[in-house]
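Hello, quick one for you while I still have it in my head. I'm working through a protein record and want to make sense of it properly. Would you mind checking whether the tokens look sensible for this chain? I owe you a coffee for this, so here goes:
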Amino acid sequence: MRKAIVIVIAIVVLGGVAWVGLQNKRNTLEENQQVFFSKEECEKVTEKVCGYQTCDYIPPGKTFEEVCSKDFKKGWVPSDHESSKIDVSIWKTYRNEKYGFEFRHPSNYRVEVVNGTRSLFVLSVLPFDSDLIVLEMDIYALDNNELRDYYGGERKDCETIAFPDEETTAYQCFSQSSKTTSSTQILFQRGGMIFSIGYSLAPSLPEVLTVAREILSTFKSTQ
């Protein structure tokens, strides 16, 4: 009789452990499937590096459901990699007196500056051992047009943000060239110039995404 009671208790305990495990797995799946409105919310809730997913590119002969799935939603989603803390205080500082800005970047990254063909100035940030551009900046003459006129008026894939400070209104726009390749562009006006900063949002490159965002977090005006 005592042996039967022990067996029953063991079955109940094992069943409880299995149920808890199933609930945790279900919660994890629901978290991974959740789409967030902003990267801040996504990374705060999931504690992971988040990338922006869109599905605007549909190859010829394919339907939206085939390429993107029926329940696909645009927004910020967590990658499979944990977010890591980066100490930007030890990074190098790039400062540009002519255009009045500065930012920090890792010591194993380089900054390349060239004169643009259409723009006044082109800046790229990339690792010393790679040609992969992590972040790119272009500066254009405004020609007395408003920033909204420059980027084509009202766009559904753009949102208003405060960048690089609370006093400046910028537009953050998202674009997708393929199912797995997407990017963001931040546009803001400073005097008679437009600053355009772009970087990749590919969740498959979490380290690159993290570095690009940390660089942006150190960007500030010096004028």
